[in-house]
Specification:
Order of helices and strands: HHHEEEHEEEEEHHHHH
Shape: globular
Distance between the termini: 51 Å
Number of domains: 2
Number of strands: 8
Oligomer: single chain
Strand order of the largest sheet: 1-2-3-4-8-5
Strand content: 15-25%
Length: 274
Amino acid sequence: MMEMGMDTESFDERYRKFLPKIRQFRLMDDTFMSQVFQNKACTEFLIRTILDDDSLVVIQVDTQYSLKNLRGKSVRLDITAHDAAGRIYNIEVQRSDTGALPQRARYNSAMLDANSAQPGDRYEQLPETYVIFITENDYFHSGCPLYHVERMIRELARPFEDRAHILYVNGTYRGRDRIGALMHDFSCMDPKDMYSQILADEVAQYKSTEKGVSRMCRIMEELIDEGREEGRTETLLDNVRQMMKNGNLSLTQAMDLLGLDEDDRKFIAGHLDK
């Protein structure tokens, strides 16, 4: 039952508009998952379960964390976490196989390295890293609960031991073990159906309390606004391209005719140069 205390019309309108969608959210949805795993205890439970290590202690969690490479290309990571042993984790949920490409895992791993190194650090000081993809489908189609990806020295048939690990978690797996229970919980819409109490309690916070539902409503409004802005800027890009092509205009002439402000000009110029 929803714990109500805020009687403002704006909240009531958002509640009616978004609650059906909020009730359908699962941990396999990255928007919802990023909120739930802001809770450090939930992230610690998640990593302990996947790595089968109940001694692991998480000391820092960031969600929807953006990193940039030297050329300015950015990537937004669903979850990044640090443990007491200095290890760094990136955890992603991927509902489509295209989001879980090996090249994506490689890129995320490289970004963790590039953004953890400090000036003067020796190479052997690079932290141990884990990139973990929780995929809705069985990405490798072999029925395993986990797929561990490690670099090997082929001629010696032994690990390279660079301490950079990649794991794929099979979201379809329902074995009678910890991973099976975890993947069951990731597919649940109703927290009452979940096995893990710590995850169920946090999911319920965002689905049945005023504070949590209000937070999810604001996030969904922000996502809608971002989508509208992305649509607007893409339309501007298309218009500028067409004017330059069909009107034989320079970039500046096209932007002048459209009456673009300084922010739009910088955006258009930056994207047309790529």
